[in-house]
Amino acid sequence: MTRWRVPGGHAGYHPSMRPIAVLPVVAGLTALAGCGTAVEPATPALPPSTIATSPAPARSGPAPTSAAAPGPSISGLDAPVLLGTHRTMIKPAEAGTSVLAVDGSGRLDVTDAQTDRALFVLLPTAGRYMIKMAADGQACLALRTGGGGPSTVNATACDPGSAGQLFSIAPPDSGDPATYVISVSGAYLQVSGPDGLIAQRPGNSAPITAFVLADKGPAA
After folding, report:
1. Residue 46 domain-assigned (yes or no)
2. Which domain holds residue 91?
3. Is 94 a member of any domain?
4. Which end of the chain is less congested by CB atoms within 10 angstroms, N or C?
């Protein structure tokens, strides 16, 4: 396993066909702060029509504009996904069949069940991306903080003016260019053992989970 140096001098690891790949923090990723409430533990999956969604986080300050961040670079094999014309499954790199999916409580978590709740559409918005559920065109992913536990990502009503719904999705500045690190409001999506998928700011030695965007064909 090759060690990588995270900006600031903290070590991370590069994915190389191991259970969970880790990569350094991408230089220059910035986002606005979001807020919300804690969620209950995941419950058994429900039919798509009953997916729970959390209230949209309250906005703070003016809505982001197209000048808030540089537009994403969209080219290569993943261009249809990054342009929002194709659906995608978001997979932790080198993690077998595991994917990210919204469970019955509305939380985004890691699962081996590749259902329609694991299908998303990435919508370029204000220089970043809204991540919309393909199974429910009114639901998007958003940062959820508070309650004393780790921050999570949950499904909520889509709101392009909410900073907590604007994700940065970018390849690492070194390593496998087919992988991406995903962050929102300065917190990176991380696969964290018993906590499942969380959103966490980099710590002294915290690795960053890398993801693969699997193209699942044209969006509806």
Report:
1. no
2. 3-39+72-218
3. yes
4. C
pLDDT at 131: 98
Examine residue 206 and state whether it is found in any structural domain, yes or no: yes
Give the largest CA-CA distance in the chain: 47
Three-state secondary structure of 139-205: EEEEEECCCCCCEEEEEEECCCCCHHHCEEEECCCCCCCCCEEEEECCEEEEECHHHCEEEECCCCC
Q: Which of 179, 210, 190, 195 is nearest to 13 (CA)?
A: 210
Query: Residue 177, exposed/middle/buried by CB under 10 A (0-12, 13-18, 19+)?
Result: exposed
Q: What are the per-10-residue average pLDDT scores of the chain (220 residues)?
A: 38 38 39 38 42 51 42 72 96 87 96 94 96 94 87 96 96 78 94 89 76 94
Q: Give domain status of residue 66, yes or no.
A: no
Q: Tell me how many domains the chain contains.
A: 1
- Token pair for residue 188? 């990176």
CATH number at residue 10: 2.80.10.50
List the one residue out of 212, 203, 122, 202 whose CA is nearest residue 165: 122
